[in-house]
Amino acid sequence: MKRSTCRILGLLFLTSFMLHARLSAQAEGAEINRPDRPNFLWLTCEDMSPNLGCYGDPDAVTPNLDRLAARGVRYTLAFAPAGVCATARSSLIVGMYASSIGSQHMRCTTTLPDFIRPFTTYLRRAGYYCTNQSKQDYNFKTPADAWDVGRGPKAHWKYRKPGQPFFAVFNYVDTHESRIRGPTRVKVPLTEAERHDPAKVHVPPYLPDTPLIRKDWARYLDLITMMDKAWIPQRLKELEEAGVADNTIIFFFSDHGVGLPRAKQFVYEAGLQVPLIIYFPPRWRHLAPAKPGSAVDRLVSFVDFGPTILSLAGIPIPKHMQGKPFLGPQAVPPREYVFGIRDRMDERYDMTRTVRDRRFKYHRHYMPFIPHYPWLDYMEQLDTAKELRRLKAEGKLTDGPAFFMADSKPPEELYDLQVDPHELHNVADDPRYREVLERMRRVHGCARRSTPDSCPSKSCGIGRRVRPSTSMPAVASIRWNVCSRPPCWWTAAWTPCRNS
């Protein structure tokens, strides 16, 4: 009798366990296959300013991205918080300023505290399949919970579970600075009509107009056309063929501005402003800020992108994130200012902070005794860099290029972007702009206090030694600090200044 009772109880327990497991699996499957959540595809590229036809560039040959913009919305005031890849990408992935997490120096290794996670971690916890096929490069070790697959050919949304929503990143590398002076990784043949004639391109006024600089600029535009011709159609076609295009919101943007001096690595508009195109399929068009083909002039920063994706996915935004969601049910009113940072770049120290509103741009230089453009071995390989050095030595630079190549810089710069979009005429000393200057100073001071730099000397270890510059022997090798643990001020909550 006792043995029969035990068997019956055992069978009941086993049946109950199996039923519970099935119900749990069904619940998990229902969460994964919820029809009310969009997929997200990020198509990113490197070292590219808004030099596209849809942004009005007269030399651009970009029909595919122009069509995407015509079907989506185009942001005209989108900015990276730093003009260099790893620093900008670190802000992108955690929704915080690099200077707040210790990743502001170009080529350093910081350590994230446990409560700061990539925004993809929160997507994964909500059932999203997250992949990054090409590039992470965050100035910190990628946390293990950031991606389902973080690199290689398997890092593709097609490997997710059936019906599972996805967030996927594909990065195009062949617009990178190094491709301006060297061969591309992927060969894309261009027709004569698609290729840019150096004699006919429009060189921006912040660079001298010489044959060598024209050659670099034409090459840069060719790289953009190659991307538009081959890579963009390929990625969009994959969505169509898999039948997921009608449920996928697409972002296209670059990691910072063009890979030439005074743009990449710097905090002028040419280094920080990026193209941003967002396509909403008809199913999700109610989430778009404007009708298809519209230009949106809202200020947005990379720190806002992660919170915005979480908002669009219906996932709560962690309170420590400094970014502001600009789409979805958790969107907040438009920000009044965006901020930029420049710290050590490769082997050369510097420290600059910028504040930009819709019209004015303020630069605060904490090391004015250092030139805007110190010797940087990597960038010096460009013909444009060599031209700038040659023209300076010969005394042939004028206006904006002469100011940029001076041996020191003023403590402050202020630009009226409405009349001076390329930041060529510093009006910080102009009494007509005194009120604006004082306002921007106050905003900068507020931002500095609410997002303090995370690398005080007591929380940093000594990093590796920089190799001496072979091209500029007078500059000795230096050491820099690399954050080895979270700074003492870090807490899970922070109090921002208004609209910062």
Rg: 25 Å
Helix content: 25-40%
User: What summary fits the major beta sheet?
Assistant: 8 strands, mixed
User: What is the distance, rounded to the nearest whole angstrom, between the alpha carbons of the first and last residues?
Assistant: 75 Å
What is the beta-strand fraction? Answer: 15-25%
CATH class of the largest domain: Alpha Beta
Structural class: alpha/beta
Provide mean pLDDT, rounded. Answer: 86
Short structural description:
With 500 residues, the protein is an alpha/beta fold.
Task: List the keywords.
500 residues; Alkaline Phosphatase, subunit A; Arylsulfatase, C-terminal domain; 8-stranded mixed beta sheet; 4-stranded antiparallel beta sheet; disordered C terminus
Task: Describe the 3D structure.
- The chain has 500 residues and is of the alpha/beta class.
- The chain folds into two domains: 34-332, Alkaline Phosphatase, subunit A (3-Layer(aba) Sandwich); 342-469, 2-Layer Sandwich (Arylsulfatase, C-terminal domain), CATH 3.30.1120.
- The protein contains twelve helices and 14 strands.
- The strands form three sheets. Strands 1, 2, 3, 4, 5, 6, 7 and 8 form an eight-stranded mixed beta sheet that branches.
- Helix 3 (85-94) runs parallel beside helix 9 (302-312) and helix 5 (119-125) runs parallel beside helix 9 (302-312).
- The longest helix is centred in the middle third of the chain and has 32 residues, at 211-242.
- It is globular, with a radius of gyration of 25 Å.
- Residues 11-33 and 456-500 have low confidence and may be disordered.
